[in-house]
Amino acid sequence: MSSPAITSESLPAMHPLVTPLDDMDTLVATYEQRIFRFHLVSIRDRDLALTLTQDTFIRAWAARASFRGDCAISTWLMRIALNLIRDHTRTDRFRFWKRVSETAVDVADVSEHIPHRESSPEAALIAREQLALVWDSVARLSERQRTIFTLRFVEELELAEIAAITAMPISTVKTHLYRALATLRACHNAPHKESL
Amino acid sequence: MRTPLTRHLTHEQLCDLILALPEEAESSALEPAHDHLRNCLICSAEFEALRDSLALFRQAASSYAGHAYSRPAMNRASIAPSPRFRSHVLYWAMAAVLAIAVALPFSLRRQHTPAPQPAAAATVSQHATESDEALLDGIAQDLSADVPAAMHPLADPTADPTASQSAAEQRKN
User: Which of A103, A155, A170, B138 would disulfide-bridge A46, Cβ 3.0–4.6 Å?
Assistant: First the structure.
């Protein structure tokens, strides 16, 4: 006796995929902006960040069956996003296009978005200088340090969550943050040393 | 236990203060570092500067990302090429028009000139055949003309035996 043929129409009814990732519209609406921000700050290219954001959700959709729910959806998505960034930034093509790209983010563009808490021109100038200093410091970090720095200080994630995303022990995450902050401190103190 | 003021916060202590979440800020593990900050102007100034810079970076990056996210959202719906791409297309179109404008007169001239070519070729070949015939006629006339005396063939020296003997005698002498 032959068994009935499995068709694509019969599969969902036989094995319903009831995961939070099935509702892609809600997923995108909830996390797209956050994933885009992470991509943008990490690779500093608007068009590329958009492409990678789309790719993140495409990959998430394709691999949704493998989501076991042992971590938050945001953590899982961030992990996919981080893998995409790693894949992309390791190519020479990325390094070339980063140099010539028109959509590369410049610190001057970001400076326009400094919150104007103090209206005095001096305060605004100091704020711009501070931002430029951090911007340059982050650019000097290694890929891992930059990722962890972004996850901690832009995404404001806890160390345990960063450890889950990067698949590193918390102590390693902390070490990377110490080193990143050492670079930042060195840049902060350099103008003072020069003035002395 | 208070941290002596003669020693400043170590890098790790300062980092722990910066990395501490708001709810962890008052934890007992960080209390000595907080005590030190209250009494050390140098450490507190550096801590404040670092914290402010990081906050500024977060706010500016988040705001810029929000702006960049909403701006391309409009562009994403549109598949129109970018203005730069359009200007490139315009340049190429202008270059193509110029190339056609330059090449057109030449092609038109070529179309007009080929018509008389067969007639001209025919006349040229006719003239050539005529001149060839005249040349051949001239050669035939020259050949049929009387040969000058100087051009007459010499007498065969073997035909006269006396002549040969005299020549042998000359060699002997």
Answer: A103
A45: helix, strand or coil: strand
Report which listed range, A110-114, B105-109, B121-125, is most confident: A110-114
How far is A181 from A173, CA to CA, in rounded Å?
12
Cβ A98 vs Cβ A104: under 8 Å: yes
ipTM of the assembly? 0.81
How confident is the model at residue A144, as a pLDDT? 92
- Give helix then strand counts, H and E, for chain B: 6, 0
pLDDT 10s digits, A92-129: 666 655 555 656 777 778 887 777 765 688 888 888 88
From CA A177, how far away is CA A163, in angstroms rounded? Answer: 12
- Say if A33 is an interface residue toward chain B (CB within 8 Å): yes
**pLDDT of amino acid B93:** 77
Res B156: pLDDT: 62
Q: Say whether B61 and A110 touch across the interface (CB within 8 A).
A: yes
Across the interface, whether the CB atoms of B49 and A33 are under 8 A apart is answered no
CB B42 within 8 A of CB A185: no
Question: Which residues from chain A sit within 8 angstroms of residue B64, using beta carbons?
Answer: 40, 105, 109-110, 112-113
Distance from CA of B104 to the nearest CA of A (A): 39
The answer, for B87 touching chain A at a CB cutoff of 8 Å, is no
Contacts of A48 (CB under 8 A, 6+ apart): A39, A88, A94, A97, A101, A103
Per the CB < 8 Å rule, is A177 touching B21? no
B45 touches chain A (CB under 8 A): no
Mean of per-residue pLDDT scores for chain B: 72
| pLDDT given at position A33 | 93
Find all residues with CB under 8 Å of A78, minimum gap 6, and list them: A35, A38, A151, A155, A165
A179 lies within 8 A of chain B by CB: no
User: How many angstroms separate the CA atoms of B53 and B47, rounded?
Assistant: 10
